[in-house]
Amino acid sequence: LVGRDAVSVAEYMQSDDCRKVFVMLGAGVSTSAGIPDFRSPGTGLYHNLAKLNLPYPEAVFEINYFRNNPLPFYTLARELYPGKFRPTPTHTFVKLLADHKLLDTCFTQNIDTLERQANVPGHRIVEAHGSFADQHCIECHRPFDGQRLRAAIEKSQVAHCDKCKGLVKPDIVFFGESLPALFHQTVPKLREADLLIVIGTSLKVNPFAALTGFVPDDCPRVLINMERAGDIGRRADDVVLLGRCDDVVRELGAALGWADELEREWAKTD
Ligand code: APR
Description:
By secondary structure, this protein is an alpha/beta fold. Helices cover 29% and strands 16% of the residues. Helix 1 (6-13) packs across helix 9 (245-256) and helix 5 crosses helix 10. The two termini are 36 Å apart. Adenosine-5-diphosphoribose (APR) is lined by residues 26-28, 31-32, 37-40, 44, 109, 129, 200-202, 204-205, 225-227, 229, 244-245. The site of adenosine-5-diphosphoribose has 23 residues, from loops.
């Protein structure tokens, strides 16, 4: 890169050297959609879950806690169920990367499916922490009907497997559970990356956070976040663009000549 700023990143993105862009998303990209992130002081979900008298916030995503008390997760799921939120300009920016034939893969930690709702091509999305798309019994893994579970969650009536009476949950990856096979199958592709863009994540949860180390040493890594995260900034071609992601992607979009297109495409998500 000629510099470590948005204009230099845009210049590189428009060069022939930049063909395969990989994106990593976290909860920070959905906060402007009205979905709180997890760890921001005061507003993060883990701060607000305290009222559910959990032993500690992360328990809401732990299988053993869920087994003895599924209701805190039901409360959280009611707030997060897809369909209530609009994608952000940042989600639309990822879609533009695909429209401009630059996006190889978008790895997301988010379960809100806003990438799909922003029309990022499905085959370019890896939902590393699962999503609400499917649901199974946590004991016998028998599939469960999505509408039935959504209705049960809306009414806080605990749903049980028809076969073994075990508890049912959406295929959200809980702490201690393995990530989807697609995640592990897609990780090796990062070795072909020409650019990595990391947006709205504290990079505190593995194995997702470790993805940043898989790209080649000469692959620029761009962090767009309110605060520094992970080891981005250590390598010669790392670029740290601190600020609200919607503002930064608009600056990057303008430098790419995509300003009008970004607003036009985002308007379609309303
Ligand atoms: N613009 C830019 N950055 C933002 C914005 C914003 N509008 N809002 C929040 N952020 C930043 C925060 O400063 C923080 O660094 O986004 C990051 C969000 O970090 P977390 O709340 O830790 O969320 P995330 O990194 O996605 O958490 C990872 O933890 O509990 C697990 O499975 C859960 O997927 C989640 C994982």
